[in-house]
Amino acid sequence: MTPGEDYEIIYSGKHDNSILGVANGDYDAAPVADSVLIRMTDRGLVDGDALRVVYESKPFPRTGYGYVYNLKPELAEQIVAAFLDFDFMNSSLFEEFKDTKGFTRVDYKEDWMNVVAIQHETGATYDESGLSTLKAE
């Protein structure tokens, strides 16, 4: 299948919009995070049985936090400790992300391997120029 020929590419702006677009028949398909779909189904916003998963990648982190490479090592260690020691299970974050028990270390090359592969395959760039193109569409 060729994008732009066999199907139209539309950017909804976020996973929730894409899921609602498929559920309402505005889009034929959409790539979304399964965790977002699960939360929307649990809240009764969409009927999970009315949607079909056609491909599922290996899991990868929802998001990442980092620090600048030349930060003083002591401060960098304190930042990491603040995340790893955070009482996630007794926070409002746990109410939203019940399938997560806390923050964890992430290895860029290992944990985002699938995302990087998609980037290379599609030719997407995540610099100012590439992101401004997405906004224009």
UniProtKB/TrEMBL annotation:
Domain of life assignment: Bacteria
Pfam families per the UniProt record, alphabetical: Phosphonate-bd
Gene3D superfamilies: Periplasmic binding protein-like II (3.40.190.10)
Record organism: Aquamicrobium ahrensii
Family annotation (SUPFAM superfamilies): Periplasmic binding protein-like II
UniProt protein name: ABC-type phosphate/phosphonate transport system substrate-binding protein
